[in-house]
Design brief:
Length: 554
Amino acid sequence: MCSYLLIGFWFTRPIAANACQKAFVTNRLGDFGLLLGILGLYWITGSLEFRDLFQIFNNLIFNNYLNVFFVTLCALLLLEGPTPISALIHAATMVAAGIFLVARLLPLFIAIPTIMNGIAFIGIITLFLGATLAIARKDIKRNLAYSTMSQLGYMMLALGMGSSRAALFHLITHAYSKALFQNMVLMGGLTKHTPITKTAFLIGTLSLCGIPPFACFWSKDLILNDSWFYSPIFAILAYFTAGLTAFYMFRIYLLVFEGYFNVHFQNLNGKKKNSLYSISLWGKERKQKVNKRFYLIDLLTLINNDQKYLFFNKRAYFHRINQNVKSITRLLIDTTHFDTKNPSPFYPHESTNTMLFSMFILVLFTLLVGVIGISFSQEGTNLDILSKLLIPSIDLLHQNFQNSFDWFEFLTNATFSVSLSFFGIFIASFIYKPVYSVLQNLNLKNIFEKNVRKTKILEKIINAIYDWSSNRGYLDAFYGSFFITNVRKFAKINHYIDRQVIDAIPNGIGILSFFMGEAIKYIGGGRISSYIYIIIFFIHSFSNLLSFFICLLI
């Protein structure tokens, strides 16, 4: 319910209203599956205590008293726990609850390989889907939402491989890194306005990219290293997604903090159709008309109670940048005349001391929390802090070689993963770093226009990637075509049956009773003896007919 109210806070926006309804329905389905799984386990074991569940479950499996198919269904239903995505719960609470629940119940799942393979498959699909859907998002909250989805995929993949230690380690490191992070097109150039926030954001970005010595490097590299033991195909997809993660995370950083503050921009792509964005307190986009005859545009205003408040100083100028391809005229905002001592709440400025102190604590954890999962001894991996905290848990991949830790193998795999991360950062910098091409390349359609001759195949590939990401992997279209349409058809059929068949039975009985009463009234002629005779006749006829059918059945 809290997630429903949070997502639907801007209830006047159709997108927010639909999103909160979708979140509510999907969470109810997940809760229903979770409840069925819990009831199924209780029906099998007769207890809800973890210790009793593990003991009884293992005894039933050992004695072959357990229906594997039924347990598989119960376990898969348990995986459908609620994981709603919201701006305030990327790092913890309900997002982490599903991962922790699966990790806590992992001793139940590892006994059946089908369940473990299903968890790993769900993890790799979530991992790849989240990363690919984030590469063309323009909203920073949506980018971070898909980033959270991708990181949850890493955790589920680790759990499916049996490495609960790596999954929980990444859950901890990801939480601190993600806690450091509206339309990115309206941002840019925030470095000089929010330098401390920029530094914290950069540290969190590098951590999620898997750059050492930040926290996520240790946990992500541990998952990537374990993936080779489980499946080379899953390992290749996981490493490829690590490069994609570095690309879209650094893309967010460059679009938000580098370049210029993009409050207004007009006709940057050389086309006749203008793209004009506006900022509103209520998060709504409002179209504004621009007089094309003038180069000086009235800056953004907010209309509230029939009064206008200027967001920015009216002094503005145009900066002309000459490219090899064409010249682009863009609007820049002169921020030298703002009152920096008492900045407007709508003007970009650094956060308050309370928020900066919180970010400082998170930065320290992002820098140091990776230590809890690092083994500084060659004698074994169970000497680190995290392993001591997880002693009662079962780690399927490492249970046979707890007494060895190969730093050379770790550094070799780490070098490869870090190289992929740096390659993703380089590609993002190559595309989005030039300030004159940030907005051009935002849709990924002009990536190699300046240096590489575009071919039809390359154009098709770029358009396919952009369409896949911007359309959210066509999941909405798939659900709309196969589920929503069929559900509505079924609802119409059900409505017709309810009105014409179900309601017709009592209505028909009522009408039949009315006409029978009228017929008896006219036949009896108002005499009581005639009514009694007719009633006795029908009762006798009905009893004879019933006796006849009973004799036939006997």
